[in-house]
DNA sequence: AATGCGGGGCC
DNA sequence: GGCCCAGCATT
């Protein structure tokens, strides 16, 4: 084993954060943690990890739950396909297969998550390359734009013999998460500083690829019926969750005609996604249908904003219960 | 290889 | 406001 590998492992033994899934043996619980951690910071994932496992403690419990129930627990965590895929996975297999190759075929498990579960839960010697590992290795070996395949081959070759692969993978990720940071890396505190070829100008490794999120204009139509708001199951973006009709502005007249209403403006809502800046004009109308209480459904954050903007309409005749809304963090204007 | 998919924290 | 996060699926 090389000196830098010893240094990393020694650092990890001393500095590993105490996280709920550290030391966990149950492969299912490790899987849940890894899926929740996809593109999600540790601090954000922890409460969902606890909530999810309290409600679905085993693969069997998850399998027997309804998708909507699963989404309700996932509400707020984002990337809702992860929840859908986890639910599908539970239907697909009785138990988690103990190998990287088999795990990688399951819904929602790509190369990273399959490798993470295989190495951490089952001890398989396979490298798990996430954004942290990519950044750490890019800097350590001064690689500006390493390709994914090369990076995996490199990481695979770096797995030390006689070290638990799950521990090694986590040590590399931990370093990236708390020392080898994207913006302000703490090189003076880094156990690998003496070995790092990219330390001088860390900004080059890896080279950031920039793109700015374009703006997208949409309209949201809040229809207030006798018993509440008209909700649809959303398609595409926010798939599986619920919300009011959301569409491009040019569809307004067609939508109004379909519902038999004339709408009026309630205000604008801005919502930033990673690759889009949404500018949503919220419109409302009284509608002869029934509708329902929206706060009982899994809603994306955008729809919470839309409904908050529509609060003056919702308060109309007290059809929608404001206490329910406030329980969801919605405050009157 | 590029794009869509959430939400939150940090600068 | 931009950037990034223990990525995956689709094209």
UniProtKB/TrEMBL annotation:
It is an enzyme of class 3 (hydrolase). InterPro entries: DNA_glycosylase, Endonuclease3_FeS-loop_motif, Endouclease-III_FeS-bd_BS, HhH-GPD_domain, HhH_base_excis_C, HhH_motif, MIG/MutY. Keywords: 4Fe-4S, DNA damage, DNA repair, Glycosidase, Hydrolase, Iron, Iron-sulfur, Metal-binding. The keyword DNA repair applies. Residues 36-178 form the HhH-GPD domain. It catalyses: Hydrolyzes free adenine bases from 7,8-dihydro-8-oxoguanine:adenine mismatched double-stranded DNA, leaving an apurinic site. It comes from the Bacteria. Its cofactor is [4Fe-4S] cluster. Its EC number is 3.2.2.31. Belongs to the Nth/MutY family. This is Adenine DNA glycosylase. It comes from Thermus composti.
């Amino acid at each position: 084993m090389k000196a830098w590998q010893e240094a990393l492992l020694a650092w990890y033994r001393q500095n590993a954060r105490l996280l709920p899934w550290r030391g966990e043996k149950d492969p299912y619980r490790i899987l849940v943690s890894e899926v929740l951690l996809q593109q999600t910071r540790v601090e954000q994932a922890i409460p969902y990890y606890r909530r999810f496992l309290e409600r679905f403690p085993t693969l069997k419990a998850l399998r027997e739950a309804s998708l909507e129930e699963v989404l309700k627990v996932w509400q707020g965590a984002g990337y809702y396909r992860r929840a859908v895929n986890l639910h599908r996975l539970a239907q697909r297999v009785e138990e988690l297969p103990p190998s990287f190759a088999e795990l990688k075929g399951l819904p929602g498990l790509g190369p990273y998550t399959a490798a993470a579960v295989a190495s951490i839960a089952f001890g398989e010697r396979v490298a798990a390359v996430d954004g942290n590992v990519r950044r750490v290795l890019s800097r350590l070996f001064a690689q500006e734009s390493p390709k994914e395949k090369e990076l995996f081959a490199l990481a695979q070759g770096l797995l030390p013999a006689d070290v638990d692969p799950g521990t090694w993978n986590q040590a590399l990720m931990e370093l990236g998460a708390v020392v080898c940071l994207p913006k302000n890396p703490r090189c003076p505190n880094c156990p690998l500083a003496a070995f790092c070829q990219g330390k001088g100008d860390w900004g080059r490794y890896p080279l950031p690829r920039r793109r700015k999120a374009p703006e997208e204009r949409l309209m949201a139509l809040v229809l207030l019926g006798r018993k509440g708001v008209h909700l649809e199951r959303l398609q595409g973006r926010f798939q599986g969750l619920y919300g009011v009709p959301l569409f491009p502005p040019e569809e307004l007249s067609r939508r109004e005609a379909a519902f038999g209403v004339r709408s009026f403006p309630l205000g604008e809502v801005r919502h930033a996604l990673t690759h889009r800046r949404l500018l949503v004009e919220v419109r409302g109308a009284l509608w002869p249908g029934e509708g329902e209480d929206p706060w009982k459904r899994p809603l994306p954050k955008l729809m919470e904003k839309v409904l908050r903007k529509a609060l003056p309409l919702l308060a109309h005749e007290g059809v929608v219960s404001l206490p329910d809304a406030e329980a969801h963090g919605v405050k009157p204007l």
